[in-house]
Amino acid sequence: MAQKNPKDLILDIKDLVIHYETDDGTVEAVNGIDIQLEYGKTLGLVGETGSGKTTTALSVLRLVPDPPGVIKNGSIFLDGKDIMNLPQKELEAVRGHLASMIFQDPMTSLNPVFTVGDQISEVIALHENCSKKEADEKAGDMLEVVGIPRERFAEYPHQFSGGMKQRVVIAMALACNPKLLLADEPTTALDVTIQAQVLETMKGLREKFGSAMIMITHDLGIIAEVCDEVSVVYAGQIVEHGTLVDVFNHTRHPYTEGLFGSLPNIEIKRNRLSPIPGLMPDPTDLPKGCCFAPRCKYATPDCEKARPAKKWLSDTHYVRCSRYDEPNFKIEREDQ
After folding, report:
1. Stretch 228-244: mean pLDDT, rounded?
2. 127-170: per-residue pLDDT in tens?
3. How far apart are CA 212 and CA 287, in angstroms?
4. CA atoms within 13 A on the CB side of 243
5. Per residue in 232-268, is it b (16+ CB within 10 Å) or e — as a string?
6. Three-state secondary structure along the chain?
7. How far apart are CA 262 and CA 255, in angstroms?
8. In angstroms, what CA-CA distances link 288 with 53, 117, 166, 293, 304?
9. What is the pTM for the complete model shown?
10. pLDDT by residue (tens digit) across 18-76?
11. What pLDDT does residue 336 have?
């Protein structure tokens, strides 16, 4: 295992644990996540709904709703700043300027009573020492950058299509050239053609501004399109992490294998897909052992005794699966 140099990291998260403490019980949303992301790189967080991806991203900007959300353990360093202990005023300066988030639903991310131009302009005015006129001018430039004519500056969100709204949200997120972009399923509400255009726009802007990015998605196609590294998240833990080649071509975790098995493949003709049986465990009552064991075709009684530790397979690739303690263990989709 090669430890990355802290000086090269825009984001360094260690052993992050987040619970939602409700009247109905404690939801164990994030259970010991580690992320090391270098400047200019893109990391894909992939996993089922409810696996803890969004909560992890929200924690980077300390936006986990409190209550009921409680960060129980861990450290978060963003561009060398200790986010966990940052005063509120400094934290507000970080949000939008050092790191920005594109939220999942563009329909609810924009204020319906303000023009789209004013909403982008407000972000710029908050973080940059400039006049209203200069902020408006830069907001118009940002609209052009995401493919919207600046003539539409004075229009309201309801006058834009879903794809256009998402472009406006991206323009807001990139308005102050953040070093880190957190994109939470940014194409979920869009049709396939617009999805491709938005992804292409994001790729181009990321290259133009040199931003690092965390792409949160359950779509492996999007991961393949935009990411350098992949973390597969299950029940609040990263169960497999590696480069794009590691995870796609040398899959090691049974859950990752299940995700690929659930996808149609035009090269292999088959009557049915192979979905992962069962459901993700109740986060208020997680199993004592491996959380994936109840759904895993490779599970043994030993898998249910303790949570598996990280097993490094190379300098860039690790997996959490206790079966790899056995010298000859393999999954079917080990090398593709």
Report:
1. 96
2. 888 899 999 999 999 898 888 999 999 999 999 988 888 889 88
3. 35
4. 7
5. bbbbbbbbbbbbbebbbebbbbbbbbbbebeeeeeee
6. CCCCCHHHEEEEEEEEEEEEEECCEEEEEEEEEEEEEECCCEEEEECCCCCCHHHHHHHHCCCCCCCCEEEEEEEEEECCEEHHHCCHHHHHHHECCCEEEECCCHHHHCCCCCCHHHHHHHHHHHHCCCCHHHHHHHHHHHHHHCCCCHHHCCCCHHHCCHHHHHHHHHHHHHCCCCCEEEEECCCCCCCHHHHHHHHHHHHHHHHHHCCEEEEEECCHHHHHHHCCEEEEEECCEEEEEEEHHHHHHCCCCHHHHHHHHCCCCCCCCCCCCCCCCCCCCCCCCCCCCCCCHHHCCCCCHHHHCCCCCCEECCCCCEECCHHHHCCCCCCCCCCC
7. 11
8. 21, 51, 41, 10, 7
9. 0.90
10. 999 988 889 999 999 999 999 999 999 999 888 999 999 999 999 998 889 999 999 99
11. 61
At position 319, the amino acid (one-letter code) is: V
Per-residue pLDDT tens over the stretch 170-226: 888 888 888 999 999 887 767 787 778 778 888 887 888 888 999 999 888 889 988
Which residues is 215 bridged to in the sheet?
A: 44, 183
How many angstroms separate the CA atoms of 307 and 303, rounded?
8
Amino acid 226 reads V
Question: Is the torsion defined by CA of 206, 209, 212, 213 positive or negative?
Answer: negative
